[in-house]
Amino acid sequence: MRTDERGAQSPQSVTRVIRLVEALCASPGPMSLADLARALDAPKSSLAALLRGLAEEHFVIGIDGAWRLGPGAFGLGSALLEARRRLQSSDLVRDGMRRLAERCGETVLFGVRDEDGETLTYVDVIESRKTVRFIVPVGDRRPLYSTAGGRALLAADAGPGLRRYLERLRPEAFTAHTETGKRRLAELITAAREAGVAQTIDQASEGVTGTAAVIRDAAGTVLGALIVAAPSLRLQDRLDELARLVREEAAVISRSLGYRAKD
Hints:
By secondary structure, the protein is of the alpha+beta class. Helices cover 49% and strands 19% of the residues.
């Protein structure tokens, strides 16, 4: 077997094929071999072998020294869209919630912003198996400003929407620690946007810590917030870990729904 044939069958080549197709999908026009090599940070020789194989299956077409997607890729895309219709978004979110619950051992929730724009409703919950745990019924509503899920949703609403929300907000203190200052809330929401995750401690309920990140669909629309909630005393040394876990799982779920973050 020749060297390029062995390389074309390696696990790394599978990853490169996926990245190559994604690069062509994202490009507004055909891409040269040099452009693809730069975009994927891969050797031209390796990519040339992969492109030849894809061209044989009509997944790509070479035109004047450049490459674009072919009919095989569009046929696969149509089949994938049909498969996605059969696999409901809620199933993918639920699968991600289960994974996160296993990884962190705490209660995991999915919350959506209500039509009034002021509150969040928990629409799905996977309770922790621990004796002392956060418990909330599906359908429970909470103000956006005092919850991790709400702040994550607000952080995703950069621009006039957030300003209007803060202008009409009349915050109420639910605990001795609830933040009610609008300027400080704006700072916390901005920090959550930059970090990609929001965290609250004893804000909506005494002794409860929340960590949340948003989930997006293929169009980039925010579907809701993925949330971990647990007793504050148990999470004092786990805040960074939970932020990482929630951020990672929200990204995995969003990707499974077709979302591709812009560089």
